[in-house]
From TrEMBL:
Keyword terms, alphabetized: Cytoplasm, RNA-binding
Family matches, as Pfam families: SmpB
Native source organism of the sequence: BD1-7 clade bacterium
Cell compartments where the protein resides: Cytoplasm
Official protein name in the record: SsrA-binding protein
């Protein structure tokens, strides 16, 4: 009997599954995040939500809005913790210019799809996306169901 490989720990802290449901993802970028110490501790515990988060561009800088990082109860009491504060995203000028040009087109937006660890740093994957209509969402559901059924049939026949 073959030995199973030990499962590698995932570096992903949180994924925004709603973004893949609501948008067509076109291009992704990796951005660093400016965080405070209590936010890093909360991220280690997985206390973050990306459901309604999006990227806001202002004065040639990218900011992450509505990403909720819940402070731990053991956080120190001598500083104010803001779970909904704006968090600056670190991108180079070339990436920022691509994002700004794309967001200025009608129907395009920039959303955060996941937050993950890269070595000891926290990275944010942001994506240029175009909104889906309700019939597009239904078509995606049908394709997913068909692929699932197809894989079941193929697996059964083998």
């Amino acid at each position: 009997m073959a030995k199973k490989k030990p499962k590698q720990p995932s570096n992903v802290i949180v994924q925004n599954k709603k973004a893949r449901h609501d948008f067509f993802i076109e291009t992704t970028f990796e951005a660093g995040m400016v965080l405070k110490g209590w936010e890093i501790k909360s991220l280690r515990e997985g206390k973050v939500q990306l459901v309604d988060s999006h990227v806001f561009l202002k004065n040639g800088e990218a900011w992450l809005l509505n990403a909720i990082i819940t402070p731990l109860p053991t956080a120190s009491t001598h500083f104010v913790t803001e779970p909904n504060r704006y968090r600056k995203l670190l991108l180079n000028k070339r990436e920022l210019s691509k994002i700004i040009a794309s967001v200025n087109q009608k129907g395009h937006t920039c959303v955060c799809t996941k937050i993950y660890w890269k070595d000891h740093l926290v990275k944010c994957e942001i994506a240029l996306a175009k909104g889906k209509a309700s019939h597009d969402k239904r078509q995606t559901e049908k394709e997913r169901d068909w692929n699932r059924e197809k894989s079941r049939v193929l697996h059964k026949n083998q």
